Amino acid sequence: MSEANLAGGSQAVSRIDGTKIRAIRERQELTQLYVATVVGVTTDTISRWENRRYPTIKQENALKLAEVLKVDLAEILDVETAELSPADNEEKLPPPGGADKKDDKNGRPVMMIAAMVIVLMVCAVLIFKPSQVNQAPPVTLTAKRILPAHVAPGQPFPVIIQISITPPGTYSMIVRETVPLACLVFKGLPAFANLDKNSGVLKWIGRTSASTSFAYLARTKTTVATGKQLLFSGAATLKKGGDSLRIVIKGDNSVSLKKLHWADANGDYRIDDEEILAVYDQLEAMTELGEEDLQTTVENIWAASGYGWDKSTGNFVIVP
Amino acid sequence: MRRRLSKPSVLILLLAISFFFGQLRNEAWADELVSCRYQQAEGKRISLRLDIGSPPPTMLILVQRLPKGTTINKATPPIKKYNPNQGEAKWLLKRLKSGSMLFTIDLDHEVTAAQVSGEIRYKNPAGGKMKVIAINP
Fold this sequence. Notes:
heterodimer; A: 434 Repressor (Amino-terminal Domain); Immunoglobulin-like; 5-stranded mixed beta sheet; 5-stranded antiparallel beta sheet; 9 helices; 18 strands; rod-shaped; B: alpha+beta; 1 helix; 9 strands; elongated
């Protein structure tokens, strides 16, 4: 009888002779399932014991095995092998109803395939995960200003700054716009964080999650001569975490001072269908800024045959 | 010699055909974001039905052409612009929603279907291009 306590282990193990066990079981016409059930292990385990793949087993199981085979423990022990293996590869009893008639020869390739799949998955994670983390999509920011081509002296006109951000997320944003000193800014949507009328610098500060628009209404000073070109400039800064991205606002950057309505793009003293459809966004911005009258004026000029400029009042006159 | 197609081949063929027609249908819908047709195009009353898909255009102009000199007694909804000398009436529609709208015009005299025509003009929400669609009885 060969018996030993494994270093670091607490259970006694016995070295069994699988060939003998199989012979005794078959002689008694006992099935692997029956033996496995009584001992409290799986049929796979019994198969492995018999095929000498697990030559050492818990002594407790060895005793149970001897009991079910109705032989002395010594009869099933391997007395020829001197060295002990520290392995005790016993399995727990599977849940009732579990398939337990697997052939050991079939189980081996399945396990090998499973092992290979696990190895491949681990490799895939190691290869792709770090690169995905490092290759977070870059944040892109674009800013475009929409200005009329011309504005009339003293008449209000809308300016829209369209901001586009990808990917969507939570960003801190600062939009800084410098309007010409010949202009007076009087309303912003959203409200300005700061408006310095002396320098003509206005700012919006806030949080945004995606593309957004900033709008304001301005009017030129009546003292400014017609024909003058007025220049606008600005920048948008986006911050997320410690990173920041600053870009110049592109799009329209100048308006010329003419005695024409800002929505009359071709300067024919009419606002036609194409022109009114083209300025819809600006008209909506005016309404949101609480300037419905300005939108109504545009619609009334469109509905009429045209408009003119009244020098005495410095205002537009609708021609029915 | 006749060869019978196997079941998988027939299935694949059917799938391909349904995909093809599905694409055609999608294309057709893409072109018909907004459509309009006459429900009545002659007599003293003209009525039109406007169908708006999704996403709706932000603003739309519906044009109705009538014989020159025609007087409009009543229009529902009210017309925004009408020039009797040109016989051109226009509705300006804002903040549109997907769905259907009905338009009627009551005239001072009877007209024939050949005398009326219409047009819808809007800025395509995808790309902002101006779109003009003719309406004929």
